[in-house]
Amino acid sequence: MGYADIFARAKSDPESFWLEAAEGIDWVAPPSKALFAENAPLYEWFADGTLNSCWNAVDRHVAAGHGDRLAIIHDSPLTGTTQKITYAQLQARVASLAGALKAKGVEKGDRVIIYMPMVPEALEAMLACARLGAIHSVVFGGFAANELAVRIDDCTPKCIIAASCGLEPGRVVHYKPLLDGALAIAKHSPEFCVIFQREQEVAGLEAGRDVDWHAFQHGVAPADCVPVEGNHPAYILYTSGTTGQPKGVIRHTGGHLVALNWSMRNLYDMNPGEVFWAASDVGWVVGHSYICYAPLTFGCTTIVFEGKPVGTPDAGTFWRVIQDHKVKSLFTAPTAFRAIKRDDPGGDLVGEYDLSSLESLFLAGERADPDTIIWAQDKLGVPVIDHWWQTETGWAIAGNPLGIDKLPVKIGSPSVAMPGYDVQILDEAGHPMAPGTLGAIAIKLPLPPGTLPNLWQAEARFRKSYLSHFPGYYETGDAGMIDEDGYLYIMARTDDVINVAGHRLSTGAMEEVLASHPDVAECAVIGVADSLKGQLPLGFLCLNKGAKIAPDQVVKECVKLVRDRIGPVAAFKLAVVVDRLPKTRSGKILRATMVKIADGEDFKMPATIDDPAILGEIRTALAGLGYPAKD
Ligand code: COA
Ligand code: AMP
Questions:
Q1: Which of 250, 375, 581, 604 has its CA 20 to 30 A from that of 11?
Q2: How far is the CA of 181 from the centre of ligand 1 (A)?
Q3: Cα dist. 13→5, 10, 419, 505 in Å?
Q4: Using CA positions, which residue lies closest to atom 5 of ligand 1?
């Protein structure tokens, strides 16, 4: 059956389509039906089945006789080490960790925050939680203590599992002091913290609160898998919204595994036993889905890569990893390829490695620019597949399903909707628009299995953020169009979210931080185009009358403030002091117009602008920062 037939079948008979897909995973008790629509517009999938994620990702492969197969390869150019873990070893390690957590009282439904770098123990911590039915929430290492504290207070974990440190090129990231700092700010206190000591930095443990990863496992009985319901939350993953309060995206266990398992064969064209590499981080959704749960559930070998595409040690690292571990499919963000291309424009390093195992490259997380796609196609000689998804959906909304059909690639488009996604372009009033017309991208409810059913303890926010603007639809927050052939084009966000090096960030959250500076009266943050990172945040600051310190000093302090409060990942380094911000007569800041000026694009003078002269001032301020950029 081809893509069109499979898509049509999922649309006309979702029950049988998804129940059949559900046969790809192991159930303790199979679900009585696929879709639970009783609470529409809130939907659930496979709600009354019972299963365990860890069983599916680990134990079942051992039970099927594949215990000697590699589950995880940790490749760390930052430490110069490689570690290989078989499924049987993974089972023993995860059961032991789960046993120790259980002995300290962690049980089904408890939340556990995981704050770890790219080490296999991060996946083991996730899987140990899954084994017990505990709900993990992984926090990315590039966030500051304050962001960690916000997440601690929101999901109130019984326990936090952290590493002593992470590694970035040229510096050690001191996780333990960040954790201690977060706990000092947070209102909620976990009962205990488990610290995985890395040899690069051994952290001091706080007696009575912290336990050592190895020591606390000593002498405990390994834990068995605890069956959970299909609608039991497997995890909470926080993502940026329009404010400083991140949204806690929930993933239900049953739909999560069914969709990911389906995607491995049909979208990524993988077979069990082959090597899949998602060069991302466990702190992001790509890491949850395609470093941990999907490749393991499907019985592949997954790569945990602790390094960067460039500088660790050079732009040939990705090719070395592909060669050494016989990677069949690589998944990363376009920004990684832009970084490689910048360091090795002719792709000379590609030729130094044997890339014969590689069959495809998947890109996601931000817009894939044509130059990057063409460069990758040219240098690697494999299909380069752009696919579009979000933290909320957990797997691709649109892509080119290599395991079904190799559809023609249209550069600039992430191809077609995946089965189960009824993607439509709507006008402001919610009417479907004709092919080729730009509008808001919405998905007709219900969303397919694996997507978010709700936000953690924030149902009203879930409804308001995603369901209220276009009743009967999920609002993606992206704008774009669909062409005559059903190919999607993703053009821009419709909200304050920007995408910096494939990392999703909220300009609203940055504005909240800037506004807290005592000399800042008013501010605006926009995303400006950047040839490496896609976008970069840029702040405009209006100072209080009588501010005592020099504007340059305020800028410096504001840059530091964002780094300290949100974290280095915000990459907030550009800010400028201006007298006034351009606004509409009703007082709305004209951010989109400022973006156009910064990017050197034509724009129409907004009819509602209060004082057009301010745009000239903004243009001058941007010119002082080198915008519009030359390349
Ligand atoms: N822990 C601590 N700090 C981190 C971090 C982590 N896990 N990840 C990033 N940071 C820091 C970086 O060190 C950098 O700090 P600096 O300001 O002191 O230099 C800052 O956060 C910004 O990081 P980033 O925007 O990623 O820039 P970079 O220069 O370190 O790397 C790329 C640029 C393009 C090489 C890198 O972003 C990349 O490989 N991205 C593609 C892959 C990816 O992660 N995709 C995510 C979703 S698929
Ligand atoms: P995240 O939740 O971090 O995965 O970010 C999701 C957002 O990244 C989407 O809403 C898009 O704005 C953007 N995005 C992800 N993949 C793509 C893609 N293939 N093309 C264009 N934008 C993308």
A1: 250
A2: 22
A3: 12, 5, 11, 37
A4: 142
